[in-house]
Amino acid sequence: MKILIEREPLMASIQNVMKAISSKTTIPILSGIKFEANEQEVKLTGSNSDITIESVISREEDGIVNIHEIIPGQIVVQAKFLPEIIRKLPDNQIEIQVDDDMNINIRSGHAEFKLNGQDPEEYPQLPVLQTENSFDIQIDLLKMLIRQTNFAVSTSETRPILTGVHIKLDNNELGLVATDSHRLASRKITIDQVENLSFNNVVIPGKSLSELNKILEDTQDTLQISVTDNQILFRTKHLYFLSRLLDGNYPETSRLIPDQSKTVMKVNSKDLIQSIDRASLLAKDNRNNIVKLVTQGQQNIQITSHSPEIGQVEELLQTISIEGEEIKISFNAKYMIDALRAIDSEQVLINFTGAMRPFVIRPEEESEQILQLVTPVRTY
Amino acid sequence: MKILIEREPLMASIQNVMKAISSKTTIPILSGIKFEANEQEVKLTGSNSDITIESVISREEDGIVNIHEIIPGQIVVQAKFLPEIIRKLPDNQIEIQVDDDMNINIRSGHAEFKLNGQDPEEYPQLPVLQTENSFDIQIDLLKMLIRQTNFAVSTSETRPILTGVHIKLDNNELGLVATDSHRLASRKITIDQVENLSFNNVVIPGKSLSELNKILEDTQDTLQISVTDNQILFRTKHLYFLSRLLDGNYPETSRLIPDQSKTVMKVNSKDLIQSIDRASLLAKDNRNNIVKLVTQGQQNIQITSHSPEIGQVEELLQTISIEGEEIKISFNAKYMIDALRAIDSEQVLINFTGAMRPFVIRPEEESEQILQLVTPVRTY
């Protein structure tokens, strides 16, 4: 194998596939990046047990030459130092040459690296996905869906199924739900041209979605999603992102969401975030980061928290309206801030059904199909 | 005590004195910031066993009002959360009020923090320095002196005296030396109007100089330095920075510097840094980060390193000139890069006196009174 390639597209590809490579892998070959060169393109692959990422560099695209010379071949290169080596090479053109003994020679300007390659035949074969169950989605929309739900997955392995985001497609409606059993994030959107497609109980590991979100650029290009029994593939023109799915049945979450409420509060989201954020400064000194919210009449709320050692904080915040019963409620400040930030609306509606019942936060504009639920903490 | 103060100068002052506050202090009162308000100004003090920093906020300066209202008094405020609290307050004007029971009330907009204060009488009294042994130096010049020497202090406590920078003033010449016994950095400058002042064996802890360098802004204003037997004070208009000095005698270092050489190399510093930096990528995989330099004729040098697991790297670099004997020498890449960066000259002269003798790096322009010495490593 030999390629003469521009630094920039090579660097971008390496950085993409590196996101799948774990330094703690127990399979030695997976600590490397697989390079496959054919006449038209060079493909890089990185993988761990959960995620596989393939990134393709075309020889030429939109009149820009990425690769000046290709002699087809394959090799696996140690990933650990590769990004730094490529970044620090003196010249923008880089020659990578592999001999029959799998010695890799990387040359650029007056610098020459000789690296030990590994046998590409030992690299695990990737499953070929049936892509019949596929649908398209705009990338910036997908990124928003991930951002609005993925933070609520569980980080504990007590119930592994909760470390993923549940995805459901039915009647042209795509729904995402994440919960760690203390809070829940739910988001729905309408998808066009998927009349014949439906699935349920697809649970994508939260970590996979975080990495996918990092790799995808915020564009209006579309991406294809294909689902099988145990894997999901996200595909753009140059990128394949394959993740395993979590085993097991995702709990039925719709009944957790209260359908009535005793107190309805409409409030400016940014003001509320900032007040809770300040109160949380002292609350964080305790292990549990609890702040208290108390309604005062039909207009004001008081946000408080205290730390026995440091002191206490008290804020009086004017809402837009409070309807229904008075309420005193305590909750985890981080959960509340995460929920408000995910909704990303100027005004939010918060529906309480008592100090010990989960409360629901929605954007003021009903059209946005997003809902955040937070379970309060008993302090009274 | 009561002050009504603008956020920006308060924040800047807090951040300055925080640099002296250690979260691991064994003296509880030193985990706080001392506030002292008189009619004209508010002074903040932070301290640990090595450094004391005082920052003064004038009531009004250059027509800008920093403090709108002062009722004199003193208090010690827990430092841990204070920067975050001040930064996140809703309004740019902040009222800090202390009652007779040392309760601190911080109010801004609709937010109110009540913090537990500590008794300012318990705060250690700062020594009053005799400032007769004082001289002035331009701040940007002082920062450069620190940058060019301080990196070479020892980080090991085996010989505590080597964790500091040795400073000497004699005959209008100020000299700084730092060494960890593997490398040495030396810098001299001429100071005006200090005819009657001289000192030797003043050793400032490297950590103090790092913090001082962080606090000082890169301006051409002057700063006053005062030296006593066991302390050194750096004073600007608004800032007092007091550091203890290290006990013990600093070793005589001048005889370590070879006064002859067998090989003299003139080379572009940036090219050499980049070559060694690349070679170091693989060398770092070993514990010792060793690269090898070999002259090839009167013009070229080869830089190499290898890691048994990853591979090897080889660079051929053209110098400006090589005079004298051929040389093969190995050294710690980090030491060499630190030295070259500190010199900050387009071209450098490197004087070798054999593969096992320390070598000396100087800027090509002799006028710059800087010298870096690196001890090679035996590999042949």
From TrEMBL, chains A, B:
Residues 1-127 form the DNA polymerase III beta sliding clamp N-terminal domain. NCBIfam families: dnan. CDD domains: beta_clamp (cd00140). It comes from the Bacteria. This is Beta sliding clamp. Confers DNA tethering and processivity to DNA polymerases and other proteins. Acts as a clamp, forming a ring around DNA (a reaction catalyzed by the clamp-loading complex) which diffuses in an ATP-independent manner freely and bidirectionally along dsDNA. Initially characterized for its ability to contact the catalytic subunit of DNA polymerase III (Pol III), a complex, multichain enzyme responsible for most of the replicative synthesis in bacteria; Pol III exhibits 3'-5' exonuclease proofreading activity. GO terms for cellular component: cytoplasm; DNA polymerase III complex. It comes from Tenuibacillus multivorans. Gene3D superfamilies: 3.70.10.10, DNA Polymerase III, subunit A, domain 2 (3.10.150.10). Keywords: Cytoplasm, DNA replication, DNA-binding, DNA-directed DNA polymerase, Nucleotidyltransferase, Transferase. GO terms for biological process: DNA strand elongation involved in DNA replication.
